[in-house]
Amino acid sequence: MAVGHCQVVFSARFCYNIHDMEKVEDYELLDSGEGRKLERFGGVTLARPCSQALWRPASPAAWADATASFDREDGNRWHGRKSLPKDWTITTAGIRFRLSGTDFGHLGIFPEQRAQWTWIREMVEKAVKDGKTVKVLNLFAYSGGSTIAAAQGGAEVCHLDAAKGMVQWARDNAALNGLADHPIRWIADDAHKFLGREIRRGHRYDAVILDPPTFGRGANGETYKIERDLQTTLGLVRDVLSDDPLFVLFSSHTPGLSCRVAENVIGQAFPRSRVESGEMLLEGRGVQCPSGVFCRAVF
Length: 299
Hints:
Blueprint: E1 2-3, E2 6-10, E3 15-17, H1 18-22, E4 27-33, E5 36-41, E6 44-49, E7 68-71, E8 77-79, E9 88-92, E10 95-99, H2 114-129, E11 135-139, H3 145-153, E12 156-161, H4 164-176, E13 184-188, H5 191-201, E14 207-210, E15 215-217, E16 223-225, H6 226-240, E17 247-252, H7 259-269, E18 274-282, E19 289-298
Parallel strand pairs: 6-7, 11-12, 11-14, 12-13, 14-17
Antiparallel strand pairs: 1-2, 2-3, 4-5, 5-6, 7-8, 9-10, 15-16, 17-19, 18-19
Helix pairs in contact: 2-3, 5-6
């Protein structure tokens, strides 16, 4: 809902001014180097692996103050995990997230996607202000950052992830952002099976967001390999787009998948679009840290 020049999200329990939330920034890259990254998530500071960080750390002394650290040198292992809260909440890019340290070193957020969340919200908000009813499909949707950004912009959203636990985590995040009653469909399913059903039902979407894994498993044990399955995914995405689409936003953390590769694949799949790409970056103090690529097909 737009009020003057300031977007406000309403629910039965919450009323949040999006632009006020955008002023709050609880994430910061403090340092990186020697295959590691030091990040601040609110009041929690973590050191974790970062394969791209081949340079030397700029502030070696800062690492000693980390709340906890994680490594994969001898299996997946936390150090100082007892110092971590069971879960905590931060705000970044205008979105509230519940974080929790998982056994794989993840937290329930990929902060390199922050610029994409802002872009999604702005693209949807502009289309809604122009009078368009926007339907967005978010595939491989994880903890819901892109889903929430699209909903904040005024879109109806379908959120899909193969893991039921992650779908519930995303629902909890939506509630944190005052979107518990927003029109969002929450689906735990295999992406290809779901897309096939949507195509047969005649359901169409004005924007599709996808961040497929390098390797993943579906809800019933199906495997996904990006080098094998991406072309099939994009073909299904093409068939589920509306006649007047806004965009397709692809992102990837797959090593070796460069911006040029992404542009070639996305440009071939969506030849009527304008294609733009770039590196996703962790940002804060000092050196920016690359963490995957994005590629947008804008219609």
